[in-house]
Amino acid sequence: MRVTKISEVKKEPLSSPVFTGPVTRQVLLPDSKEFNVNVVNFGKGVRNKFHSHDSEQILVVTSGKGIIATETEEKVITPGDVVIIPAGEKHWHGATKDSSFSHIYVYRLGSKMTQLEE
Question: Residues near 62 by Cβ (< 8 Å), separated by ≥ 6?
């Protein structure tokens, strides 16, 4: 067993064309053989572009105010909210214009993310 404090996990820049601006990532379970579990920290107004995953994705909001959106709906999410995104659902998530935003994301190790917006 191992216990990790999020506040003690190093933030590292995460560079990917799926993001509209700079974000950082904190890898919470680097040795997991089953799950990707990371914190992603978005600056004000930064989001990821429409994308999908070939497995379910879970988001747990830890700070700030964010938005989760599909092609047909958009919801504001805040600390304590837990979101489950079905496999294959086209979506994006990120910070509102007036707040930074952080969430823990969980998805199956080895699953594929497909960017659907340029």
Answer: 6, 39, 79, 102, 103, 104
